[in-house]
Amino acid sequence: MEHTVLEHQEAIAKLRKFAEDVNICMFTTLTEACELNTRPMATARVDDDATIWFFSNEFSGKTTEVQHSDDQTVYLLYAHPGKNIYVNLIGSCEIVRDKAKMKELYSPVIKAWFPDGLNDPDMCLLKVSAKEAYYWNSTSNKMVAFLHMLKAIATGEQYDEGETGKLEFE
C-alpha cells in the first residue's frame, strides 16, 4: 500500500475532495467525564485554509462540550464504504455566531434542522481548524477489491488496499 505525506495546499485539496465525496462525518467531542461523544454532522464547506464549517445549535451538547474543553480538540471521521474512502481528522473547534458567515454558507438543506432558516436565534457555526488527518482511499469498488484480495491469497502476495497517507495542515 502506498503511504504518502501531503502538506499544505495538496493536503487541503485532498481533504476538500474527500469531504465533498462523503459529506457526512462523525463529529466527536469529549464530555466533561472525558468520554467520547460522537454524532453525524453534514459538512457545510472546506475552505482554502483547511477550515471545515458545520451548522449547529448553539445550545447543543456538542457546542457545550467544545466550550468546556481545555484545548477544544475535536475528531472528524469521514467514511464512505461504497467508495472505499476513510478519513480521520484532528482539529480545534470554535463556535462562531457571525450572521454574515452563516448566510454565506447557508443552503436550503439546513432548513431540515433549522425550520426558521437564518432567522433561528439558536443557530451557530462550528469552525474546525484542521491540524492533521489520516486517510485511506481505494478507488476500486467492492467487487474489484474482493478480486484483488482473492488474487493476493492465491499468489501469496500482500493485498494492496490502495492509497493511504497523512495530511498535514500546519
Automatic annotation (TrEMBL):
Record InterPro entries: Split_barrel_FMN-bd (IPR012349), Stress-Dev_Protein (IPR052917), YdaG_split_barrel_FMN-bd (IPR038725)
Source organism, top-level taxon: Bacteria
Domain (General stress protein FMN-binding split barrel): residue spans on this chain: 10-160
Pfam families (UniProt xref): Pyrid_ox_like
Family annotation (SUPFAM superfamilies): FMN-binding split barrel
PANTHER family hit by this protein: PROTEIN BLI-3
Protein name, UniProt field: Pyridoxamine 5'-phosphate oxidase
Native organism: Deminuibacter soli
